[in-house]
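ARCHIVE ENTRY
Sequence with per-residue tokens
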Amino acid sequence: MGDLQAYDWPGNVRELQNAIERAAIAARSGALTFNLFGSGEPVTPVIAAELEVVPEEVMRQCERENLLAALQQTQWRIRGPRGTAALLGIKPTTLASRMKQMGIERPK
């Protein structure tokens, strides 16, 4: 908890929310682990009291909202070290594929 509080959170509340959502989705053993962007140091796992089962539709909506938040945070930059793909830890081609699948297009 101290590591989470000590982190700078340059993306403010959205970045914190996204980190918690990713940790909850990735949790397999009941322990939440956080990969804080650019911190370079592992964060001590936090044991989850209860894991709530989330329906597939809710998971899709969370993924879509997370993707849109990341795109807005990076000003719709897809590639490069400051791009959305790097922020999410995925390849730019994977990001493009997910955007197409979700019908997400850059606003004009």
Observations:
- The CA atoms of residues 23 and 93 lie 23 Å apart.
- Residues 53-108 form a domain with the Arc Repressor Mutant, subunit A fold (CATH 1.10.10).
